[in-house]
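Archive entry: two folds, one per protein. Generate the first.
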Amino acid sequence: MYIIISIFAAYAIGIISYELNIYSYYFTAIFAVLIYNSIINKKFVYNAVIIAFVILSYLNCNYNSISILSQYINENIIIEAKIKDQTKSDSLSFNASVISINNTPLFNEENIILYSGKSENIKGNSIIKVRCNVAENQLAKNRMLFNYENYLRSKNISAALFSEGDAVLISSDYSFLNTISSKFRSYAENTFYENLNKNNADIILSIILGDVNYLDDELYDNIKVMGLAHIFAVSGTHIVLMYIFLLNVFKFILNRRVSWLLSWCIIWFYGFLIGFPLSVMRALVMFTLLFGSEVLYRKYNSLNSIGLAALILTVYNPFWIFDAGFLLSFSAALSFIIYNKYIKSENTPFKNLYMYLFLQIFTLPVIVYYFNFVPVMGFFYNLLLLPVFTAIIISGFLLMILNSLLPVLLIKPFEIFDYILYSLRYIIDISDKLAFNGVIVPTMSLCHIIFFYIALFFMIYLNINKTCRCKIIGIAAIIGFYSITYIVFPMADNSLYFNIADVGQGLFTTIKYKGLNLVVDCGSTSIKGMGEYIAVPYLTKRGITKADAIFISHWDEDHYSGLNDILNSHIEVNKIFSSRGNEIYTDVQELSMGHQMKVDDNLNIRILWPYKNLVLNNINNSSLIISLNYNNRNILIPGDIEEEAEYAIYNDLNKYDIVIVPHHGSMTSSTMQFVDAVSPEIAVLSYGRNFYGIPSEEVILRYESAGSKIFSTFEDGEINIILKDDNLYYNTYINEKSDNYYELYLAGIIYKLIIFCFLIIWMLKGEENYEL
């Protein structure tokens, strides 16, 4: 019945498995299952189509990952490019497509973002020739954090280029369609900027044009906290309102089919004018399917329609499947379909309330994964303000259309509209001052998301299955499963989690043991705003809302630049330790050699250096040296110490399983005596692209000679190390894992599956007993 849904599911899982580097396993498994199914059920055509789309997922991902420009990273090249339009941002940048590189035409154009500096020769809808530098993606490689490379792929953009000189104009107004779109945007901007307050005009422009870049950051942050961000992404709501309005206008002068056709053409033209955002494409494809079924007198299947819409879009760009807007748009649409098909209640005063509540629950994993904030009060803001926004959208469109015909008669209506937008902004600003708007939550893992939707669909099944008499037992089974796996198991977990994040040229590590959360250094000199964009999100996504202590090895920027952002965030910090005090952070407690923190029988933390009140000219040698002992495993975090400090602690050193290489691998550290003394199983280098000669090749050879496994945040990205009993496991951002890492998968998943199956059997047994 739902053939398209199953085809899309197989195709989507193929894309995800490609990204996770497990495609070969996925293809082997699904090929074997479908061959068996073909033999048993004789569904040869259906299974062949499934296999074809699984293969297509790989080919499409591979094709969309190929870029000629990637061969010229950090090089200067001469390009010819079509400039589409200027982006609405603080920097002078343009959306463009490259048609030739170094006078060699490209077979396929490659989309880019072109940063033009102060060049005045670059205009929208033109073809130019300019010398550019192809920028490398220098953003940090950390799991669950914003990934600029994936962002560009989801936008079908190959690279970001920076112009190195003045551009030469080859052609103006090269595209008639671009000219129409540009003039529409200019007309909309002129209409509202001339008749409204600028801030109010920005609001209506962001709604009509579907571009939140018109809004200032503070206002948009408040809108997201209120759970109203979906209003500012042109979506199904806008399309439905336009469709209803157009049909009601055309029905007086045209017959039904012609009204449909004309309305369909207009809303597709509107989608073109605003650049076909993802949410609009989803709505337009589904609307087209509905329109086709009406015209051709065919039955409309909403579930297959949403599956076909998702399939069409992801065939065009498979990496849209990782886009937050794509997932929110489709999950919201799917929630409405499921609610109306399987849950729909009687016409009660709370009908809309129930529907919106189900929408929030259904989209919760997507919201949590990408934004880590659940707008609890958004439930009420939407109920109160959605009718207001509906009126604003309709009024905005009417004023924009009529302004070209009767501008003099619209003076008063624009004044009223301006007042309404003033009131709306006031409500949004007031909401920011409320004590509670929502809750900050950690990111859900893929396993958590899967079990969440299994539980949700099971609850729906219990609701619609009239013959199922064990609803109480079923609900108890779900509650029991989640209680055991996500409350009891974590409380019993006594593993130590040591994470070294990628922060470019700097150091940021976290230690998690039972309920204890520690941060050791949090700084970077190569990434501006490291605290705001890496440290705080990194801790938030991992559920760390309280840091029991932050250790700053010494007061160099690459070890503490993110501290202020952490202290000013929602994260509670109990104590700050360092080897010296600081004029800015007056509540820092000084630690010195001999300090010891015994957490329990399994974990002990010792300070090996410096001496108390030690004053050195070289601040690096006053770094805290932290030694952690967990069961029979040892970790050493020595800051930026150099040869002098290494010699001073030589007698206190023993063999360490894990060592953060001192001073990022500088030649002034990691003497032969030091490396021989610690002889680490794993040596971690934390550094970014630099001109200091870090890390030294000689230092790397010393650790290799000592038999160390060497990781670096520059090459491997984030490094995760887990100590469990006497075992050591590691995993990196690029998926290099220890040979025994599969044990964690088995321990984490098999236990949950056993408990899940046991509870299902118990529930079914309970139903049989109930019937007896």
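Generate the second and append.
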Amino acid sequence: MAEKKLFNTVSQSLTNEQKEKLEDIITLQHSSESNKTILGWLKEPPGHPSPETFLKVIERLEYIRGMELETVQINHLHRNRLLQLSRLGSRYEPYAFRDFQENKRYSILTVYLLHLNQDLTDKAFEIHDRQILSLLSKGRKAQEEIQKLNGKKLNEKVIHFTNIGQALIKAKQEKLDVFEVLESVIEWNSFVSSVEEAQELARPADYDCLDLLQKRFYSLRKYTPTLLRVLEFHSTKANEPLLQAVEIIRGMNESGKRKVPDDSPVDFISKRWKKHLYENDGTTINRHYYEMAVLTELREHVRAGDVSIVGSRQYRDFEEYLFSEFTWNQTKENTRLSVSLSFEDYITERTSSLNERLKWLTANSNKLDGVSLDKGKLSLARLEKDVPEEAKKFSASLYQMLPRIKLTDLLMDIAYITGFHEQFTHASNNRKPDKEETIIIMAALLGMGMNIGVSKMAEATPGLTYKQLANVSQWRMYEDAMNKAQAVLVNFHHKLQLSSYWGDGTTSSSDGMRMQLGVSSLHADANPHYGTGKGATIYRFTSDQFSSYYTKIIHTNSRDAIHVLDGLLHHETDLNIEEHYTDTAGYTDQIFGLTHLLGFKFAPRIRDLADSKLFTIDKASEYPKLEAILRGQINTKVIKENYEDVLRLAHSIREGTVSASLIMGKLGSYSRQNSLAIALREMGRIEKTIFILNYISDESLRRKIQRGLNKGEAMNGLARAIFFGKQGELRERTIQHQLQRASALNIIINAISIWNTLHLTKAVEYQKQSGSFNEELLHHMSPLGWEHINLLGEYHFNSEKVVSLDSLRPLKLS
């Protein structure tokens, strides 16, 4: 009844013209896509970020805007209900919409298109973001090519001027005539020519590449006039010079004028770009460089949240993501943050904690094994492996007792034992899967989790069709269902007695597994550290009990650190994570600050510890033995001035108003290095210093971190063994479909971990009954072994049918 009323309300706020357009998108074919309806065309994921892709995205955006759906009354609907309707709209095919009652059809389509309008706006600007990065990357590559081409000449000049320099040094030392000595090495006219040649070969003193971008301007012009015409930008500041510049360029595009007005604002442009802003007369603004500079600054300010885009979800005003000051003041007494609301109490407590560690280290610095504080450099001896050989043999003996099993059987076993399959309720009616549908779900999970795809899985599974697997993939294996199924598995594993030998579920680690992308995708990044191809990263969280409790897809070039809190705060399991480990890429000063505010102990393994900067709140001179490694003093003034806003930011993250990764990405932008970001950084430096002091003082802590990270690496090893299809490449264009693959893989990993733990428990019981048994060795085991699991399936060969050249199979001609 409530749903019918909702549909009636939305439908009644639509005009007849809007309803006709909604009918058109599910019945008419798009002019450029003869085999697709307009709705199918609108749903197409963008491919590789390029000017052409940008224009295609804008074409779809303008089509939706032309329907003027923003006038429809949906403000009274709860955000989660709108999201649910939008997800339904994204799954239904045009023929399904045509079967619906009118009000239902119009309502779901309307909500979906309004959400798609936001997505397309975000995608359009993301393409611009990538184009600016590509512009700068091409400039760097062009500079590298110049250096390669001129390498021999440059080397000759270095040798040449080395000889001249040595001659001049000799003249100075022996008080000889400088010019006579110089001409003994090179004739004067040749020297002048050589200097001129060197000037031609020289790159800018700052070795920047912006002078090489003049010709690249025209690649931006393929789409930037449309960008400035279609997207509407707002600023938090009145009369923002950047937006004035945007309006000037927009006006020039519309009028056809080529000359940039002399009074155009330039103060907001960075020094790097200003060097190239004017022509040789020093007053005329270079149109190409002005426009490139403005478009680059626009990218940075939008990413930081200082400039918002109307109709966007990802690029709103920074303050819109947070609790308002009024709401914060009304609710802060009940906040779940782990620090005092009083700055004075906070800084007193942190000063005491930091000073306590500094005093302890001062008194014990000469007693620490494997730690050196020589000449202002911190160094640690490499940790020896702490897994005894006896434990490896013990583990092998237990695994030898495990029965061999096919992965298909293993998955069905764990489904019946845990009931995780019941979480795959149908997205439209919440119906749980029956027995037949459960088998189809398991097949789809294996197809996606092993990366062979549901089409190949259907071919390899007698009795199942591609249509069946595709249907459950679309309607039952959505993000919420996958997360719930994963939580059931993790919770079940958490309660097993053997799991407690590996940990109590309060510590975890996270690590990225880099994957090549075999298709053009808006989210594909190139990273020279991981080969020549483009890719994405599966960022996985592993508990101390060897369960994988959270996963997400991130950009390969994204800093792991900004995603750490997403997993710690938004997993849906019973695990109570208190301490978390990452590798070096998983930390920043600001993450140290936020994790402390949110009540987590953050413990990264820091590479190049010797270069880490430690800070004091009091003067470093109070700790003379440590003064060489204490290289900075905390700015408590900026913390005090911004303390309320920092707490409001942390509270907003804790309560789910904004994801940590989104807001941390904005805080990390150079243009948002304002007092709030600086205050959070300073608070993080306190926590980082305390952590490093604990890290070098406590070998057991270092070992605990090492063990935690090793568990994550072992998890990645199993993941790669399972995800063998298509050479381990992701072939999905959208993050949603990539995440579906990653989540299916996670479910399989957790199922294997449970199956192994259950059977290892039986093996342990047998060992106990058989005689001598060292219970301590159980702590060094892992439930992630897979040698006994058949990951490849079974192959049947028909020897009865004899085939000759005269009885080849017929061709498919229809």
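Annotation attached to the second fold: Residues 214-316 form one domain. The two ends are 48 Å apart (CA to CA).
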